[in-house]
């Protein structure tokens, strides 16, 4: 294979590591920050808001960060942002009030929006155009491995040590990301038009972004509230096994998702992923045994492991000359889904209990299936291949 068509080139491997460090820094806090807040305030609605305010601040910065990535100093902005991102992680341990805590969350989320948009833009440039679906699958594997390892690692750290050690660990991963980013080339410039926030979003990427939004709504409900729900059901001791199973499914299936989509089309593979997601939620609704918990982890790993990389790839390929805008757009919806999902799940838990969360949230993958079917011409093999050839 010519070196120009190789996915695992130097630039791709470096940005893969940067993305992994950013995500694991973030993921170890997802299940532990809610436990930290719940311990103090004893209010599930506040738990949802704590997760939501982080992601909403990232949402506000996503379109702007897409614009920043077109500036000559994009790399310096990203490195500085990662260092401050790590500094804010350790600041959680010294928050003296709820107001200070929320201000830290807002700043943390804003920098999360900048850094993850930057890594995705660099990855899109590093992947050969003809192999972008497969390449984005490998790239998002860095996110999904961190998503699978991070929550379990976070719970382990607070069970064996203290929240202070947890926040220090999060900061360390952010610093490692910044140091690795120093060796990465700045993202290439693309044409981003002037205008307001809405003009900085890529319209061509809206369909895959909305589908991913529905998937991350579920992510916003599962990860923050599953530790609380598992404790209520008496299976919290198996939570580490849940995330390990989720990680195993992601790692084993991810290399095949992109290749299967290249052969069968993004539409078919994504539809199967959404069906698996519905099954994962239904299994959580009746969580009474270890078998049910692990079966849900398998289904969720298959579902999110297919939807996430394929919608990322589709968004970029549907806007081949505006990759930075497409990246900012789909990450905006990614974060928006987690934020809205967490807040909605918090209020559902407060008034109807944890079990009701997962039953209620089946509406989101079902809605995504309706959208996917109605827009299936965008995800057929022929249009995606044609767009790949143009870019």
TrEMBL record:
InterPro entries: MFS (IPR011701), MFS_dom (IPR020846), MFS_Exporter (IPR052714), MFS_trans_sf (IPR036259). GO terms for cellular component: plasma membrane. CDD domains: MFS_YfcJ_like. It holds the Pfam family MFS_1. The chain crosses the membrane at residues 12-33, 45-64, 76-104, 110-127, 139-159, 165-184, 205-229, 235-253, 265-284, 290-316, 328-349, 355-373. SUPFAM superfamilies: MFS general substrate transporter. Its main location: membrane. It comes from the Bacteria. Residues 11-380 form the Major facilitator superfamily (MFS) profile domain. It is found in: Cell membrane. Keywords: Membrane, Transmembrane, Transmembrane helix, Transport. One of its GO terms (molecular function) is transmembrane transporter activity. It is a multi-pass membrane protein. PANTHER family: QUINOLENE RESISTANCE PROTEIN NORA. This is MFS transporter. It comes from Desulfosporosinus fructosivorans. The lineage of its organism: Bacteria, Bacillati, Bacillota, Clostridia, Eubacteriales.
């Amino acid at each position: 294979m010519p070196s120009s068509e190789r996915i695992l080139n130097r630039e791709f491997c470096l940005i893969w590591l940067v993305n992994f460090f950013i995500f694991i820094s973030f993921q170890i806090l997802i299940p532990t920050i809610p436990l930290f807040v719940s311990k103090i305030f004893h209010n599930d609605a506040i738990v949802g808001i704590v997760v939501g305010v982080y992601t909403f601040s990232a949402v506000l910065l996503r379109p702007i960060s897409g614009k920043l990535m077109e500036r000559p100093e994009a790399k310096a902005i990203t490195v500085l942002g990662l260092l401050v991102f790590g500094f804010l992680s350790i600041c959680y341990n010294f928050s003296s009030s709820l107001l200070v805590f929320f201000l830290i969350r807002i700043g943390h989320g804003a920098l999360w929006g900048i850094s993850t948009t930057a890594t995705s833009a660099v990855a899109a440039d590093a992947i050969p155009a003809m192999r972008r679906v497969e390449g984005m699958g490998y790239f998002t594997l860095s996110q999904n491995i961190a998503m699978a390892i991070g929550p379990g690692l976070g719970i382990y750290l607070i069970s064996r040590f203290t929240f202070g050690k947890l926040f220090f660990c999060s900061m360390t991963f952010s610093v490692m990301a910044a140091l690795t980013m120093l060796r990465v080339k700045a993202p290439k410039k693309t044409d981003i038009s002037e205008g307001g926030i809405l003009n900085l979003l890529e319209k061509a990427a809206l369909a895959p972004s909305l589908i991913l939004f529905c998937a991350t709504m579920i992510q916003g409900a599962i990860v923050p509230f599953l530790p609380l729900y598992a404790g209520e059901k008496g299976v919290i001791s198996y939570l580490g096994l849940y995330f390990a199973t989720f990680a195993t499914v992601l790692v084993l299936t991810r290399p095949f998702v992109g290749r299967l989509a290249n052969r069968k089309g993004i539409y078919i593979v994504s539809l199967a992923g959404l069906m698996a997601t519905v099954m994962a939620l239904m299994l959580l609704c009746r969580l009474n045994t270890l078998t049910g918990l692990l079966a849900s982890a398998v289904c969720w790993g298959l579902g999110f492991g297919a939807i996430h990389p394929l919608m990322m790839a589709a968004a970029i390929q549907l806007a081949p000359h505006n990759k930075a805008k497409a990246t900012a757009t789909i990450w905006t919806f990614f974060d928006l889904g987690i934020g809205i999902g967490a807040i909605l799940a918090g209020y559902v838990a407060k008034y109807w209990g944890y079990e009701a969360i997962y039953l209620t949230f089946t509406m989101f993958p079902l809605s995504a299936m309706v959208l996917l079917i109605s827009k299936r011409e965008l995800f057929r093999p022929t249009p995606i291949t044609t767009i790949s050839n143009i870019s």
